[in-house]
Amino acid sequence: MKLSIIIVNYNVTRLLRNCLLSIQKYTEGEDYEVIVIDNASTDASWGDLIPEFPKVRFISSEHNDGFAIANNKAIHTAAGEYVLLLNPDTELEGYYMKDLLDFADSKADFGCLGVRMHDAEGIFLPESKRSVPDMFNSFEKLFTNFKRSNSKSYYRSDIEEDGVAEVDVVTGAFLLVKKDIYEKIGGLDEAYFMYGEDIDLCYTLLRNGYKNYYYGKASLLHHKGESTIKDEVYLNRFYGAMQIFIDKYYRESKPMQYSFLKAGLKLRHKIEKIKLK
Fold first, then answer.
1. What confidence tens digit (pLDDT) does each residue in 72-105 have?
2. What are the residue boundaries of the Glycosyltransferase 2-like domain, all occurrences included (predicted)?
3. Which domain, by its residues, includes 64?
């Protein structure tokens, strides 16, 4: 089998249904499977999709252990040469899956691949193509609204939206990777509950000599944050994930950057908490 599509669901049955319909429509004729793992949703309506999509394998988790653990659990059962991590709040928008797989096959050093994402209003989502966080681009992201053109800043504005190029980081909302390489590097780091694990995976691929790609010829609709309540729990998880990342990669090797990033994250976290009040 060529491809296993892995979807982690949590309380977004309506969007999951649309996602599955888009896969059904745009991957017709491809050699693939779909595995949906429900992360202990409080809304049990996802079960209504089982008879509607008999070719989809549904897995039910007893506990919500987070995005990384759920993906790793599902991928362990996958039969595909490639695995595609796909958010349930996304929809494919074209017959491009074969093109993506052919592109990946053509790269001897292929790490992972992401596509051009936009929201429901058609606005491009800049997290489609990113750099690894460092002291300089993190300051720009955390504390300014200034977006430099033709720069290798956090959001790679030097790459056209519909371009094809090497990048450091793509998003876990749509991330194509070879299963054997995914397993070789350890999969998603399960220290992350949610957020940051895609950055870590992409960086791990780079550190192991692989190259990551942005493929802007293919587009994806992403209904951002539909299963996320932007409350203090969300903030703690988001900024906690960034802290895990810098602890892992910068504490020992880049102490000056580590100190700056730690202080910046703490300050930005405090600012966001104040905004909630």
1. 999 999 999 999 999 999 999 999 999 999 999 9
2. 4-149
3. 3-228
**What is the CATH number for 76?**
3.90.550.10
* Number of Cβ within a 10 Å radius of residue 277: 5
Q: What pLDDT shows up at residue 141?
A: 60
Residue 97 DSSP symbol: H
Nearest CA-CA partner of 92 in 163, 30, 156: 30
pLDDT value at position 77? Answer: 97
Main-chain phi, psi angles of 218, to 5 degrees: -110, 140
Evaluate if residue 254 carries a pLDDT over 90.
Answer: no
Q: Please, which residues have CB within 8 angstroms of residue 246's CB and are 6 or more apart in sequence?
A: 133, 257, 258, 261, 262, 265
- State what percent of residues in the chain have pLDDT above 70: 91
Q: Above 90 in pLDDT, residue 257?
A: no
The DSSP secondary-structure symbol of 195 reads S
CA–chain centroid gap for 178, Å, is: 15
* Structural domain contains residue 250: no
3-class SS of residue 54: coil
CA dist list (Å): 5 to 34, 99, 181, 215, 244: 5, 16, 16, 18, 27
